[in-house]
């Protein structure tokens, strides 16, 4: 079976643009359904790929990426859309991407609106995120031809030694973003699955209280709202949010 390498995508459709930021163990592919839905409604859509992602080596995320680098990429992505002549730019993020989408709304004046899906803000325990990344790593290595069980176990042990440092850095970044939530004065969409196992679903309600312009949308679904059973509901809600703000 041929495995297609994920790639960033840019749909150049209209003057209004939406930036979509993916998750910690995800890729731009997780944003494609939402991207196409927005494109059909005359929005230009850009979904970049965070450094370290989209490869067959999970360690790339831990060794090549960092919150600082991903934030710089977020700013560069907004700059790209501005260079394309887009006048109204909104930014949304899934999980890890939610951190930087929120930070952009806090710090970049040109953003008109935005929001988050399955946000880790105000989630204090990252243990489930850790477990999910370890599971993701095992799955990626198991699909690689030529790797023995011993080699896979060896790689997993290396991931296990590096993951905590990265999660600590991400948690520190969320704390900084949390402190400035009250600074957000533009429309802020919060999408949260009520059966989310990776982040605390109740944390979304705390964020909603902190951001006076927020609109909280709860879904009977798990973490990855952009591709799970709630994705059509989410697409409709995001489109309605953009059209009315």
TrEMBL record:
**Source organism (scientific name):** Companilactobacillus alimentarius DSM 20249
A single GO molecular-function term is: carboxylic ester hydrolase activity
> Active site located where?
95, 196, 223
This protein's name: Carboxylesterase
Short name of one Pfam family for this protein? Hydrolase_4
Record's InterPro entries? AB_hydrolase_fold, AB_hydrolase_sf, Esterase_lipase, Hydrolase_4
> Which residue range or ranges hold the Serine aminopeptidase S33 domain?
15-221
GO cellular-component terms in the record?
membrane
Domain of life the protein comes from: Bacteria
Query: What taxonomic lineage is listed for the species of origin?
Result: Bacteria, Bacillati, Bacillota, Bacilli, Lactobacillales
């Amino acid at each position: 079976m041929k495995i297609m390498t994920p790639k960033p995508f840019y749909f150049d459709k209209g003057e209004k643009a939406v930036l979509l930021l993916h998750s910690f163990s995800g890729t731009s592919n997780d944003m494609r359904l939402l991207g196409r839905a927005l494109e059909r409604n005359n929005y230009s859509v850009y979904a970049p790929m965070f450094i370290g992602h989209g490869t067959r080596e999970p360690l790339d995320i831990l060794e090549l990426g960092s919150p600082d680098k991903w934030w710089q990429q977020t700013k560069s992505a907004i700059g790209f859309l501005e260079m394309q002549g887009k006048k109204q730019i909104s930014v949304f993020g899934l999980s890890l991407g939610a951190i930087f989408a929120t930070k952009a709304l806090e710090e970049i004046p040109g953003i008109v609106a935005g929001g988050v899906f399955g946000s880790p803000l105000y989630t204090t325990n990252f243990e489930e995120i850790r477990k999910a990344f370890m599971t993701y790593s095992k799955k990626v290595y198991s699909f690689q031809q030529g790797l023995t069980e011993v080699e896979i176990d060896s790689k997993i042990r290396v991931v296990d030694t590096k993951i905590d440092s990265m999660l600590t850095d991400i948690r520190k970044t969320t704390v900084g973003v949390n402190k400035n939530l009250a600074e957000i004065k533009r429309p802020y969409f919060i999408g949260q699955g009520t059966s989310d196992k990776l982040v605390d679903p109740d944390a979304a309600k705390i964020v909603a209280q902190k951001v006076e312009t927020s609109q909280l949308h709860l879904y009977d679904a798990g973490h990855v709202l952009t591709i799970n059973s709630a994705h059509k509901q989410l697409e409709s809600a995001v489109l309605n949010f953009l059209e009315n703000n």
